[in-house]
Amino acid sequence: MIWHLVMWRVKGEGEEKRRNMEEIVKMLRQLKEVIPEVKVLHTGVNFSTSSSAFDVGLITGFSSNVDLENYKIHPVHLKIVERIRKLTLKAIVVDFED
Questions:
Q1: pTM
Q2: How confident is the model over 12-67, as pLDDT tens digits?
Q3: Can you spell out the DSSP letters for 17-58?
Q4: Range of 77's domain?
Q5: How many domains does the chain have?
Q6: Would residue 2 count as lying in a domain?
Q7: 1 occurs within a structural domain
Q8: HSE, side-chain direction, 13 A CA sphere, residue 4
Q9: How far is Cα 88 from Cα 64, in angstroms, rounded to an integer?
Q10: How many CA within 13 A on the CB side of residue 31?
Q11: Over the Cα atoms of the chain, what is R_g?
Q12: In a domain, 4, yes or no
């Protein structure tokens, strides 16, 4: 299995930040429904109080590197990435095979 993990720090404070995080999670959950290469998708808002924690996380699983590459260029994924970039300050990405 190929795993693609992403974590974001989200812009805003208080209610604005909460809305931004919820919007991101809602958009990400659509990916499994419209991109057949996505075999596993888990996403959510962080609840850790650690100062080093990020705000939103995504874990996606693929059968192959080719499927991951097709996901990365899928039009729906690209549209969501564009919107998320407007709502976030920083992202960290890790891709690995298990």
A1: 0.94
A2: 999 999 999 999 999 999 999 999 999 999 999 999 999 999 999 999 999 999 99
A3: HHHHHHHHHHHHHHHHHH-TT--EEEEEE-----TT--SEEE
A4: 9-97
A5: 1
A6: no
A7: no
A8: 20
A9: 28
A10: 30
A11: 13
A12: no
Let me know if residue 55 belongs to a domain. yes
SS3 1: coil
SS3 71: helix
Both tokens assigned to 41: 């998708």
**Domain holding 38: CATH number?**
3.30.70.100
Pick the closest to residue 35 from 75, 94, 83 (CA basis). Answer: 75
39 vs 85: CA distance, rounded Å: 24
Residue in 55, 58, 64, 67 with CA at minimum distance from that of residue 29: 58
Report how far residue 30's alpha carbon sits from residue 1's, in angstroms, rounded to the nearest whole number. 21
Q: What is the largest CA-CA distance in the chain?
A: 40
pLDDT bracket for residue 94 (50, 70, 90) = very high
